[in-house]
Design goal:
Elements lengths: L4 H11 L6 E2 H8 L5 H9 L12 E2 L13 H11 L4 E2 L2 E2 L1 H4 L7
Parallel strand pairs: 1-2
Antiparallel strand pairs: 3-4
Helix pairs in contact: 1-2, 1-3, 2-3
């Protein structure tokens, strides 16, 4: 049975390693369509399993966290990332150091 778009997105987000982040566009591309970045945001906003699907590891391409983080706001997203050792520079994730480098096939 074919997976839904949201299921494909959740499968990718589950692969983001502890202590690393991915961008919305990166998740979209790995899930199958580079133009799904906004869809990734919608999927994460209705995440059915916040414990198993670490949506807080998805950030904007410039390292900003989401103002609309569905599970406690942007401050909670920052707390969760910092707890994993992710460092911020001027309020943004240091993407050079912490961006997940999974190749897109």
């Amino acid at each position: 049975m074919e997976k839904t778009t949201f299921e494909k997105i959740y499968d990718v987000v589950k692969q983001i390693p502890y202590g690393q982040v991915a961008t919305y566009g990166q998740v979209a591309a790995i899930a199958g369509n580079r133009r799904w970045a906004r869809v990734v945001g919608y999927a994460l906003h209705v995440n059915p399993d916040p414990e198993g699907i670490p949506c807080y590891r998805v950030v904007k391409k410039d390292g900003q966290v989401s103002e609309a983080f569905a599970f406690g706001g942007s401050n909670r997203q920052i707390e969760l990332l910092k707890a994993e050792g992710v460092e911020f520079i001027d309020g943004r994730v240091d993407m050079e150091q912490y961006q997940w480098e999974r190749p897109v096939f």
